Amino acid sequence: MANPKSSEAGDELSPEQQKFQETKEQQRQQDAAAGQTFQSDSGEYLTSGRQKKAAKKAEKKAAKPKGEPVSRREFLNYAWGAALGVVLVEAGIAGFLFTVPRFKAGEFGGLFDLGTFSSLPPVDGPPISNLDGKFWSSNDASGFRALYRVCTHLGCLYEWKDQTFRFECPCHGSKFQKTGKYIEGPAPRSLDQFYAILEQNGQMIADITEGGEPLPAAENPDANVIVDTSKILKGQPH
Amino acid sequence: MGVINNVAHEIRKEGVISWLLRQLDVFITKLTTGLNWNDLRGLARGDDPRRPNPRLTVHSESFWFHIKPSYYHQSVTKLTHTFRLGLLSTYFFFIELVTGIFLMIYYAPTPQRAYGDMLNILSNVPFGELIRDVHRLTAEGMVIVVFLHMVRTYLTGSYKKPRQFTWLTGVVLLLATLFLSFSGYLLPWDQLAYWAVTIGGSMIDKAPPPVLGKTTQLILLGAPAIGPAGLLRFYLLHVLFVPLLVIFVFFIHYYKVVRVGISLPSSEEEVGQDTAKRVPADKRRYYLPDVFTDEMMLLLLITFVLLALIVLNVYPGAPLEHHANPNKTPLHTKAPWYFLWIQGLLKLGDPTIMGVVVPTIVFGFLFIMPYIDFNPSRKAKDRRFAITAWMLGLSVFVILTWMGTPFFKVASPPAEEVVQLMLPEEEAGPVRETDWAQLQLGEWDTRVDVPGNAESTANPTMQGLMEEYAQHIVVEDVKAYEKGLDEGLPNGYGKMIIEEWQDGLKKLTMRVFWQPEGSDEQTFEKTFFIDEESGYAR
Question: Which residue in chain A has the smallest CA separation from B106?
Fold first, then answer.
């Protein structure tokens, strides 16, 4: 694959040119030994890195199947295919929204309006169980909490014991204070509670955040306590 | 280690990106059972396939494509030859399956819950009303499409040898479609449902001999009358038993279609010949990509039309009437429109003969029709008798359907008819369809409050309603006179009194007055309540 031009004109080369040709030839042999040959379009051997890179690119381009332009039929096929895809995606979204359940107030997963401070359990008395909402209304001097009825250990329902004035789990014996704080037993964290807010005249006065303070129900005796059983706040690990 | 070395060598040789692209192509080829990326692009472009043709591999390797033939005769793929009605029926059934399963999420088949569940789906569940409307509209569409499919098959004589059994399974599918539609009727547990199915159940009761009818009705309803047991049984038939039957029979039906081939237009064959399976190479139209594209395009279009009909309110939405009341049959209880012909028959005579024997003969005839048609020709000019008989049959069907409507032989007293036309006991009617805010408070009179009368204080909408009211009074008077009834509505006029009854609730009193010669003025009165949120006017 010698360059016909250079071989024809070989006799008239100056010594510098001859040397250049020799270097080139050396380079070519090295490349051939490495399994690579670099030639320009005119068949000249390329030596510099930049030239090689450009040639590689051109080679790649040529190797790719000639990118035929998108024909009208092809375009229309893609267009209606995309339309079909859009319909399917929309149906999927509608199906998803249809399937996700929504909860009315007063059923588990929805909101529970417990009324004002006067209808909450007494500050120094036992908590009150709300069966529909699956929580204990627990009220003390620090404020109000709605404790999720389920033990943080393995899902048993703990009970309130008046004699010991605390919650005790019948399965593995975890014990919790009235505020839900962990006392002893295998449970990994204090009791979980539901997100709840204090609402007065349609305005939110206070809410419970994860690890935050309970609702100051005693200070706002006219505000309604609303428990949202769709949001569980995890208890503090000990 | 060998594998990893090989992969590493390949990557080093061809570069990461091209290696990944090649792996993707291998994956696509596996997924499509034989088509690589370039083949797929060739499908979209309509290019000729490479050799050996990988598109045929798809038909032998893929489950879904093996059901379809790899090519058709070009004459049968024209839209106007079959209108692809079989495909449409199947697609509609598929829509029914999907939307039906979605509706089942929020529905329990007990009289205590069913109606409330419907209200929940309509008013509370996102897209609930849309999905119910699609389910209902597609159900009615499926009855039409299946009917048209059979009409096409009949008119092109395609039920003839060797396709008799295909037709027979088709009749089974027709009956199943009708029963699916009808059994779905009961599930909302509203007045419409309850009484339509009561009538259907009574018809079964009339099947001879009495023991058979009685037993069948007991098995179907689980009790002497429709109640919790009947609802549960209809539900199970609707969601499980009949759909399974349809799927089972469908595969028999479609296997026969593919096995025997779709009949060519009769003009392209000699009488008595059947060349559907011997397709010359130059007449072949391959399923991939041409027919496949046609089919998908059609289904997309139909989906779009169905949704447009609902969204643009051309289809008024699946009705939900009052809660089922076993102690009150609403005035003018109607069968679903595709059974009106039976209701028409029932008005003509003995329920055993008209309700059971005649329909059995009709469907029985459909079953055996291909086996007793000895005319070998499918050309229309040789089938004058068959086509005339079909046209006569269609006319009888249309007339019987009209006879099934309340316009035939169920006339109540004329004044009651007038009020029923304005404010039917079930369904919407013109007054309920009026915008609630436009129902103007006051006492309106058909003699005063008509368009163009300067004395009237009614708004234009009310004037329009009163004009309609006045027309019904005149028409019912004439009808009564034509029937020779004593009591027409001579000197008749009507009043509509609209009062604000509660916040968001209007009370409508409809009064019709008439005065026969030489006697006192007489009145008919009926009251209605219309809620602002009733949703009739949309």
Answer: A99
Tell me: the pLDDT tens digits for A23-35? Answer: 877 877 777 776 6
Both tokens assigned to B189: 């547990």
Residue contact B126–A80, C-beta within 8 A: no
Residue A91 Cα, gap to closest chain B Cα (Å): 10
The rounded distance, in Å, linking the Cα atoms of A1 and A43 is 8
Q: Do B105 and A73 touch (CB under 8 A)?
A: no
The CATH code of domain A111-233 reads 2.102.10.10
Provide CB contacts within 8 A for B159, sequence distance 6+.
B153, B166, B167, B369, B370, B373
Q: What does each C-alpha distance from B378 to B222, B268, B270, B410 come to in angstroms?
A: 47, 11, 9, 44
Quote the tokens at residue B327.
């102690």
CATH code of B73-327, in short, is: 1.20.810.10
Q: What is the model's pTM?
A: 0.82
Q: Which two tokens stand for residue A61?
A: 């381009």
Tell me if B192 sits within 8 A of B319, measured CB to CB.
Answer: yes
The continuous run of DSSP H or E covering B56 comes out as helix B54-61
Closest listed residue to residue B418, CA positions, set B531, B528, B525: B525
Chain A touched by B4 (CB under 8 Å): no
pLDDT class for A36, splitting at 50, 70, 90?
low
Domain boundaries, chain A: 4-61, 111-233
Which tokens sit at A124?
């120094």
Q: How far is A96 from chain B (nearest CA, A)?
A: 9
Chain A interface residues (partner B, CB cutoff 8 A):
65, 68, 71, 73-74, 77-78, 80-81, 83-84, 87, 94-95, 97-100, 102
Which of A120, A122, A101 lies closest to A112, judged by CA?
A: A120
CB contact under 8 A, B105 and A98: yes
CA distance B464 to chain A (A): 40
Residue B122 DSSP SS3: helix
Q: Confidence band (pLDDT; 50, 70, 90) for A198?
A: very high
Give the whole-angstrom CA distance, residue B115 versus residue B186: 11
Minimal Cα distance from B95: which residue of A? A91
Complex ipTM above 0.95?
no
Q: Mean pLDDT in runs of 10 for chain B (538 residues)?
A: 86 91 94 92 91 92 92 92 96 97 96 95 93 96 97 95 95 97 92 88 86 91 91 96 97 95 90 86 92 93 95 88 89 86 90 91 96 92 95 96 84 85 87 89 90 86 91 88 76 92 92 87 90 75
Cβ separation of A98 and B131 shorter than 8 Å?
yes
